[in-house]
Write a structure and sequence with these properties.
The structure is a homodimer. The longest helix of chain A has 25 residues. Chain A has ten helices and 13 strands. Chain A is of the alpha/beta class. A five-stranded mixed β-sheet of chain A has the order 3-2-1-4-8, with helices on both faces. A five-stranded mixed β-sheet of chain A has the order 11-10-9-12-13, sandwiched between helices. In chain A, strands 5-6-7 form a three-stranded antiparallel β-sheet, with no helix packed on it. In chain A, α6 runs antiparallel to α8 and α7 crosses α8.
């Protein structure tokens, strides 16, 4: 009975709509994943069909929960431009046909439980904070090195969204002078041009084409950051250098973030975190040089612990915060 | 009676200890300055003498208030390294002999009212937020272009101090590539090397010595940003360019801050704000290019309204926040 009062037996549904995979899970209030589904986003043959597939999976998960642990609410993570308060997915560039989609209303109607929408980078951050590498910190930032660089900012144990209900857009913090590359967003010099998996891959391909020394002998189309991590482990100079440069850029942006906000920790997640060991030394060097509010010893820069499931875990924190 | 319940008749004492001047005031809860004193910090012939002078001025102000409007608390702003919770001024580089000074305890004992200590840049920010150019905004940053560049960050209508009880150290956010100048803090490329009044003055003097064209014909020791503003108004290319470069650097740092936090406004105060009209165009250009979370039209970048009295006004907000 006590456990029930504390809500430890409560379950939630969690949904993470990515451009590549749609993940869904049955989770506890503490972020434990009880059951998990995943399918390629491309299986949705039309915008409506994709919605139907998602609802089907969520209903399956609800059935698994049984009536005793029926999920109380649904937490949804989505990329692109979202309006969390309205529950509307305004624009998801990687999901064709989804525009101004009132996703929380549609899901609530289908599942008969309340739904809350949040930016996927924010959910990722909440996940690492609740049950991952950021656990126990009140003030921290979580970076996701993926196709882009996302950010989730936790201030005083709550997700920070600012005046425009946005994610912490750390991927588009502009870098200085020499490093100006064109970003997918149309701007020059955004952090993600050099620190996202896509950015690092592009730089590697360019440099191989320019004849820079590397151990890589394969098809350039297959060169990505996972391959680069393997190469770096074998001492490949090209991969090692690109990771070090990414580390410098991240360290340099994080210095500004730490100086501004006096955070305790930064968590590096996303696929690019596979290169964490190669990124950290230069990151640490630049960050420790430029920090004012604390020394490097007083803060933590750590690798994310939850991987791709972080947004599902974060859904629990989101729903907790919303009072469910 | 109603006014009394609402606390509109309450008064506070405010103290702003600068390296050049010590200012003190009798203020209302709303930040109106009822009475004001100022004397050169150098009048204090020893650390103890300076304290005695300050206490004397504050007692004078308390007498002026009379028993009917006796001040309820004292708000203290100080530069350097402070410990707000302990009420200790750990290190004030511009005030010789003041080290690990338990200033709130000393003031409380002398004046028989509670005292609260805060970083002067934070108080400046609180002042502009309460009764100045930042009024009505919930999420904003206030920059002070002075000897250094200070920052006060207001999030959800409260001063943000982070995990290390620090100010928003925007002056030490590192700039990129080409602009790397050595900062007084020993680091390379801090914003304040190009955007503080001291930084801009130094750059001007260097460039005059290097033979860059300018209308200035006076003694180089007398060249400062006030003179540069007059020169710029007459079309002086050197001063105009240095202000434009400062604007670029500020715009570029603010882009990161706005992208990270989704703020509504930035207020530019301090002595360097005299050059606001010459700084704004390039600031706006760079900022609007790099903003992601909102457009330039949705946010405001405005000149501070309170000038050097902002910290005294901010003491009212500080004491309100502390429940006095």
């Amino acid at each position: 009975m006590l456990a029930n009062i504390q809500g430890n037996d409560d379950t939630f549904l969690a949904l993470d709509i990515g451009g590549t995979y749609v993940k869904s899970g049955l989770i506890t209030r503490r972020g434990e994943i009880l059951s998990f589904h995943s399918f390629p986003t491309s299986e949705g043959q039309s915008p409506t069909h994709l919605l139907e597939l998602i609802i089907g999976r969520l209903k399956d998960l609800r059935s698994e929960a049984g009536s005793k642990r029926a999920p109380k609410a649904l937490g949804i993570g989505a990329p692109g431009w979202i309006k969390p308060k309205e529950g509307v997915l305004a624009l998801a560039p990687n999901i064709p046909g989804w525009k101004d989609l009132p996703i929380t209303r549609l899901m609530s109607q289908a599942l008969k439980i309340p739904a809350v929408l949040e930016n996927d980078a924010n959910l990722y951050g909440l996940g690492e904070w609740l049950a991952g590498a950021g656990r126990g910190h009140e003030n921290l930032i979580v970076l996701t090195l993926g196709t882009g660089v996302g950010g989730g900012l936790i201030l005083e144990g709550r997700l920070w969204s600012g005046s425009f209900a946005s994610a912490a857009e750390i991927g588009h913090i502009p870098l200085g002078g020499e490093r100006q590359r064109l970003c997918g967003c149309g701007r020059l010099g955004c952090l993600e041009t050099v620190a996202s998996t896509n950015g690092m891959r592009k730089i590697a391909i360019e440099r191989v084409r320019d004849g820079e020394p590397t151990r890589y002998r394969g098809d350039l189309d297959l060169l990505d950051t996972s391959v680069m991590v393997e190469l770096a482990q074998e001492g490949d100079p090209l991969s090692t250098r690109i990771f070090a440069e990414a580390g410098e850029a991240i360290g340099w942006v994080l210095a500004g973030v730490f100086n501004l906000l006096g955070l305790e920790a930064a968590v590096i997640g996303g696929g690019g975190a596979g290169a964490f060991d190669f990124i950290l030394p230069s990151l640490k060097k630049v960050l420790s040089h430029h920090m004012v509010t604390a020394t490097f010893d007083e803060i933590r820069v750590v690798k994310g612990a939850l991987g791709g499931n972080a947004p599902l875990v974060g859904a629990a924190a989101l729903l907790n915060n919303h009072g469910f």
